[in-house]
Amino acid sequence: MKFRIKIKFAQSPSEVYQQMCSTNLMVKWETNFHGYQPTKGQKRKIKSEGFRIYNEPDGSQTKIKEYIIDNQRNKLLSYQLTHQNFMSFVECKFLDQGDGTVMIEDTEIKFRPAILGLIGLFLKGKMRRQREEDLNQFKQLLNSKMT
């Protein structure tokens, strides 16, 4: 399952990139995000690893392994997220528009076992909408920092 989200920001690519790389800020805009636990390398640099920790509705927490595939300052952040039921690849590009930035986020999700892939087809719209809501929350957060 694949989807793409484009978001226009008033800020420069360097500002959007820096804030997107901040795991401390993610708790303010990403749904159910609780924290980040680095395990290998310098946090969010190429080949670094860590766990994203999310709060579940029942009060438990879920850890999702993050591996940074590529990180090109002010231009690109790509990573892999792994859990027992899925693997996702995310690539965020930060494009300078002169009067701001367009961020393009391409996501590919592979479910495990394959039967979950069928269920995933029905959830694609919901997952895409949730991610778009999170990124719009991120945009609002950046806009509030400007004022």
Total count of helical runs of at least 4 residues: 3
Give the class from helix and strand content and strand pairing.
alpha+beta
What would you give as the CATH superfamily? START domain
In whole angstroms, the N-to-C terminal distance is: 38 Å
Summarize the structure.
With 147 residues, this protein is of the alpha+beta class. It has a single domain (2-146), classed as Alpha-D-Glucose-1,6-Bisphosphate, Chain A, domain 4 (2-Layer Sandwich).
Features:
globular, 7-stranded antiparallel sheet, 3 helices, Alpha-D-Glucose-1,6-Bisphosphate, Chain A, domain 4, 147 residues, single chain, 7 strands
Q: Could you walk me through the main structural features you see in this protein, from its secondary elements to its overall organization?
A:
With 147 residues, this protein is of the alpha+beta class. It has a single domain (2-146), classed as START domain (Alpha-D-Glucose-1,6-Bisphosphate, Chain A, domain 4, 2-Layer Sandwich). The protein is built from three helices and seven strands, in the order βααββββββα. The chain has helices at residues 13-21, 23-26, 114-146, and strands at 2-9, 33-40, 49-55, 61-72, 76-83, 86-96, 101-111. The longest helix is centred in the last third of the chain and has 33 residues, at 114-146. The model has no long low-confidence stretch (mean pLDDT 92).
